[in-house]
Amino acid sequence: MLPDPVLFERAATLLRAGELVAFPTETVYGLGADARNPAAVARIFAAKGRPASHPLIVHVRDLAAASEWAATVPEAARRLAATFWPGPLTLVLPRARAVPDAVTGGQPTVALRAPAHPVAQALLAAFGGGIAAPSANRYGHISPTRAAHVVAELGDRVALILDGGDCPIGLESTIVGCTEQGLTLLRPGGIPASRIAAVAGPLVAPGAAVPRVPGSERAHYAPRTPMQLVDPGRLPGAAGMALAEGERIAVLAWSPPPPDAAGCVWRQLGPEPESYARQLYATLRELDEARVTRILVEQVPEAEPWAAIADRLRRAAAGSGMALPDAP
Questions:
Q1: Is residue 327 part of a domain?
Q2: How far apart are CA 46 and CA 49, in angstroms?
């Protein structure tokens, strides 16, 4: 689903003028600004209510464009880019001297990704530079996977929203650090750690000096409604007890509802991790708006294909029920 070509030129013109443009990637919708313009990047933080110390991902067309942002590109990073770009992989590399501190959170590294979505690629081609873009939502809230989610989150804080339909992956990118410490998995995502290691060599455990990266906070991706993770065997009993106590609850599960679950809002996303991930954020938003007192989420299997989903659910549960910051 490609917007009118005229919109890409308009979007590029807005970016050059320091405005914000939201656009789809294969993972989630991003809130984009000219990565070379610190004032424009500052508008991202203001619109999201995001702490300025948090680094952003710079979206580029390909490895050649990424080389303009990195001081060095290790051979392992080149192999990963050749295999997975464009795609849901972010590489954290030593930053080039000219990269603005506003993009990196003052760190000596920069996060780079070449998105695969045709709308993102068309926007990058029209703009001709790097686009700094976190997810297009209020800081800490559920990431957007549809243009309507961006409207609900940010409204007129965005100059233009390019609608590319639903994001086909639905979870944020895998982030891999490629520094002198070696290859480090900094955030699980759509590309499993085993595939990273198969291409570029073994991953090392994060050290004390691991770079800060987007989405690594303990509480993140969260609904406003309190959310609780429940073991699969305990889910029917926990739901029944809550209903008996007069609660209005919602359940997010990868298994089907039992016969006595008619009194709650039950959404089944499993059992395949790809389809679960694709629907996760949209379903969490639906349940968050269902006027329930609590969301019970069935814990997903402990297997590598589910690792990124399990990570997002843990962080969402840790941040749920909190008052999220209002953007100015």
A1: no
A2: 5
